[in-house]
Amino acid sequence: MENGDVAPTSVTDRIEREANILCMRDQPTLKYDLQKAESEGRFVYVDMREKYTAYIADFLRSQKLDKLLADFYSQPEHRFIHNAMNGVARGYITEIFGKLRVPAESVFPMDSGKDDLLGLRFYANPEEQWLLPTADRLERIGALFECANDTDGDRCGGILNRDGFINLNKLLAMICDFVIRGLHWENHIVIRTGTTSTAIDDVVRTLSDDGGYDIPTPEWDQVNSLIRHPFYSVRKVTGDVEYALALHRFPCIDTEVGFKYISAAMKKYDLPAAVAGEESGGFTIKRFPDKDGILGICMIASMIAWHGKPPGEIWREHTERYGEKYDERLDIWAPNNPKEKIINSWLDDPPESIAGQDVLWAGGTYHDKVEFVLQDPGGGTISRLLVRASGTEEINRIYIESSDEQVLRAIRQAALDRLNELIIEDVGNAANHHDLADRIASTGMTFMTESDRERYFDAVRERMGALAAKEGEEPATIYRRVLHLLTLGMDRDVNVRHVAWGVDIGAEYYHRIFGQD
After folding, report:
1. H-helix or E-strand spanning residue 156
2. pLDDT over 60 at 2, yes or no
3. Mean pLDDT on 423-430
4. Among 189, 225, 259, 333, who pairs with 444 as Cys (CB 3.0-4.6 Å)?
């Protein structure tokens, strides 16, 4: 690994194997005093802040962005908020802009103090639910937009302006347009992960075909690499096979989820990237080998300055040029059984249609992901649905994309209905009150309707009654044991997680079980 590159799969796989062996042996972890280690010369602290900010400033100058930034952000009505979310990125944007002679008051720092509790956030992510509560600050200080970094500063998932939240799917497409048309970055590849919106493909396709720009598209004639993976199963293809395969050929290079795959693609083709990114908030440009949220915010600010307009207006003009794309990602907490069953059952028996849309393609990897390409019966709107199971948390990530917002909403509800049915069904398999409490604690109710919650807790009561009969106990005894586990006996992070997503699971359980007439 050189030049700050990310660890490749061969390295991360070996680390995982070694960690698994250590866990199996259950050996005590060796510890060493840091001060002693430093005094013995085992390591030294290096402060790279000044060199880093100077490097980024020099890069922006090399692209002739210093005057653009200074002219635009010197105007009082163009100031913006940098929300560091109490993470390590605090102060960096101001320092970089200072080196470019951009007035310090053009960047309004927010949550820029050191706080180990991150302002009592559960997640400090630059995403919609964490930025929307700060929307009033745009009005209060007259800011054009707000941008944020996550705690370690490598992501900048989206920005907020008075039109609402603009996610990175849209920003990647807008930045791709900016660097190619505005900065004339030709002979640059474009890379995205498989869960990232095809809106960026629309930009590359239009600029390559109609705009005459030189954009290498080395994989456009191939079915994308995700489908060529040996573990991927094609389960259903409806109608013309070549037509269905064509919907899996993209002008962008399409990779697995994870920045190490993006980095590997950059090395493979040995070309600079106009944009290389993933919808979760990380992206890079040129030959920078890893995601960098601070550089990302500088590029977003430059793109807005080049257009000279608010971000919402830029996106509206973008859709006029490249077409509309609606996208959404849902993160849904679910116990392990329904989390994987929604994937495996759809792969075992793909439906003919979802939300009134014909299934042209169904495929995926068992226990990991299932994806559908959908088309309305009239042969027009193409939509995509992808469900992934997190490998580290009890979460399903549901990605939906469509050129029709109403169709997207219908697909969203169909996917939620399917998962909620499996979650409700799973309650009936709890082996004892400990298992039942664990399944309840693993269930996120943020996306459940009131009727779903009623049916869920009906199933909970039914299972607790069955457990009580099996153990020769009164149902109220089981109710109270589960309540204890969901409140006093539950891991603090689980409780905080639920509250962060708008549900106090202990209070919800108490209300539904003990608050009945």
Report:
1. none
2. no
3. 95
4. 333
Residue 150 and residue 141 in contact, taking contact as beta carbons nearer than 8 Å:
no
Cβ 272 vs Cβ 278: under 8 Å: no
Tell which residue, 430, 445, 435, has the closest CA to residue 485: 435
Tell me the residue length of the chain.
517
Classified as helix, coil or strand, 400 is: strand
Between 461 and 28, whose confidence is greater? 461
What does the alpha-carbon distance between residue 299 and residue 293 come to, in Å, rounded to a whole number? 10
Identify which of 164, 406, 150, 410 has the alpha carbon closest to the alpha carbon of residue 280.
Answer: 150
Closest-CA residue to 203 (of 220, 215, 221, 218): 215
Strands (E), 279-317: 282-286
What φ, ψ does residue 206 adopt, rounded to 5°? -70, -45
Look at residues 192, 175, 161, 148 and name the one whose alpha carbon lies nearest to residue 78. Answer: 161
As given in the structure block, the two tokens for residue 68 are 């653009």
* CA–CA gap between residue 359 and residue 330 (Å, rounded): 21
Q: Distance (Å, rounded) from C-alpha 331 to C-alpha 393? A: 11
Q: In angstroms, rounded to a whole number, what is the distance separating the alpha carbons of residues 283 and 295?
A: 9
Q: What pLDDT was estimated at residue 94?
A: 96
Output the furthest CA–CA distance in the chain (Å, rounded). Answer: 78
Q: Which of 329, 338, 383 shows the shortest CA–CA distance to 357?
A: 383
Q: Is the pLDDT of residue 1 over 60?
A: no
Nearest one of 502, 351, 347, 472 to 414, comparing CA atoms:
351
Pairing verdict, β 80-83 and 107-110: parallel
Cα–Cα distance for residue pair 412/431, rounded to 1 Å: 32
- In terms of Cα–Cα distance, which of 53, 48, 146 is closest to 91? 53
d(CA 160, CA 102): 22
Predicted pLDDT at 445: 85
Distances (CA, A) of 462 to 279, 437, 471: 41, 14, 14
Determine contact, residues 234/228, Cβ cutoff 8 Å. no
Look at residue 515 in the predicted model and tell me its pLDDT: 79
The residues near 189 (Cβ < 8 Å, ≥ 6 apart) are 215, 216, 217, 218, 253, 265, 266, 269, 271, 272, 273, 274, 276
Environment class of residue 131 by beta-carbon count within 10 Å: exposed (0-12), middle (13-18) or buried (19+)? buried
SS3 category, 223: coil
